[in-house]
């Protein structure tokens, strides 16, 4: 599931393949931008902003994409047949003499002026993996609505940019509280600890393909609760449970996490 660490890694792979090279092929397969032609222009950089990807091109253009649940970018040597899925799932192609990047199942794809990037990412909170990371501002935003559940506050990209459903569940577990607990009922030290842990986990995972939140004591189990419904908690042995919070499936340990419990179907 693409979250801030996945997007950071995707941006760096795209940057290595495209930046500093002249585009020889461009194809944006959405009606509004189907006739756009960026060939002959140099890709300047590819940057991650939270869960957004910004591919900046010479002349003041940015290709903006968002993977959401199952989008992906794949890079192949130019001339090599792409294998990321059926051809009809390809929504973007950016290629140069050496490499070609294919965007699969992209729910968000648009071409905009680089000067207008704030229109699509200006609402985001501090980026957990960005150069502008500001933990104090992240704590302030996370705590701004005391009545909101922790899970909803963590997923709100206006608070911290980069957290998705996996990290939401894992962070709540590591904090010892359920995702249904209102933010205003968190112990005073927990918001700052949550923010620090979120930053540490995304930093630790940004360079590796398999996401891990557990310690080396659990080599075969990369996550504490996410996806582990019915299995014993690694700390207390209680069965991990699953329920919905909003429209997102949520995992938690009723033995380790205090606060309101979700309603298991």
UniProtKB/TrEMBL annotation:
List the EC numbers from the record. 4.2.99.18
What general EC class does the enzyme of this chain belong to?
lyase
Q: Tell me the domain of life.
A: Bacteria
Boundaries of each Formamidopyrimidine-DNA glycosylase catalytic domain copy? Answer: 2-103
Q: Which residues does the UniProt record annotate as the domain FPG-type?
A: 224-258
Q: Where does the record locate the signal sequence feature? A: none
Per UniProt, which keywords does this protein have? Answer: DNA damage, DNA repair, DNA-binding, Glycosidase, Hydrolase, Lyase, Metal-binding, Multifunctional enzyme, Zinc, Zinc-finger
CDD domains in UniProt = AcNei2_N (cd08971)
Q: Which reaction does it catalyse?
A: 2'-deoxyribonucleotide-(2'-deoxyribose 5'-phosphate)-2'-deoxyribonucleotide-DNA = a 3'-end 2'-deoxyribonucleotide-(2,3-dehydro-2,3-deoxyribose 5'-phosphate)-DNA + a 5'-end 5'-phospho-2'-deoxyribonucleoside-DNA + H(+)
Q: Which cofactor does the UniProt annotation name?
A: Zn(2+)
- Gene3D superfamilies registered for this protein in UniProt: 1.10.8.50, MutM-like, N-terminal
Assigned protein family:
Belongs to the FPG family.
Its protein name is DNA-(apurinic or apyrimidinic site) lyase
Q: Which organism is it from?
A: Streptomyces gulbargensis
């Amino acid at each position: 599931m693409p979250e801030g660490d996945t997007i950071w890694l995707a941006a760096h792979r795209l940057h290595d393949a495209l930046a500093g090279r002249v585009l020889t092929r461009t194809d944006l397969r959405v009606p509004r931008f189907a006739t756009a032609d960026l060939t002959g222009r140099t890709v300047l950089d590819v940057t991650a902003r939270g869960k957004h990807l910004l591919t900046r091109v010479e002349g003041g253009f940015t290709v903006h994409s968002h993977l959401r649940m199952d989008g992906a970018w794949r890079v192949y040597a130019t001339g090599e047949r792409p294998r990321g899925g059926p051809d009809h799932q390809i929504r973007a192609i950016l290629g140069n003499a050496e490499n070609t990047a294919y965007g699969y199942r992209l729910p968000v794809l648009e071409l905009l002026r680089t000067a207008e990037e704030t229109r699509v990412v200006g609402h985001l909170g501090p980026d957990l993996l960005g150069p502008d990371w500001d933990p104090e501002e992240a704590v302030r935003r996370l705590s701004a609505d005391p009545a909101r559940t922790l899970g909803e506050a963590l997923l709100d990209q206006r608070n911290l940019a980069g957290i998705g459903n996996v990290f939401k569940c894992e962070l709540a577990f590591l904090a010892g509280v359920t995702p249904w607990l209102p933010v205003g009922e968190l112990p005073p030290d927990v918001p700052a600890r949550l923010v620090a842990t979120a930053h540490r986990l995304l930093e630790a995972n940004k360079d590796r393909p398999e996401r891990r939140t557990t310690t080396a004591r659990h080599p075969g189990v990369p996550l504490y609760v996410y996806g582990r419904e019915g299995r014993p908690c690694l700390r207390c042995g209680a069965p991990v449970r699953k329920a919905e919070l909003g429209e997102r499936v949520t995992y938690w340990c009723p033995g380790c996490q205090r606060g309101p419990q979700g309603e298991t179907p």
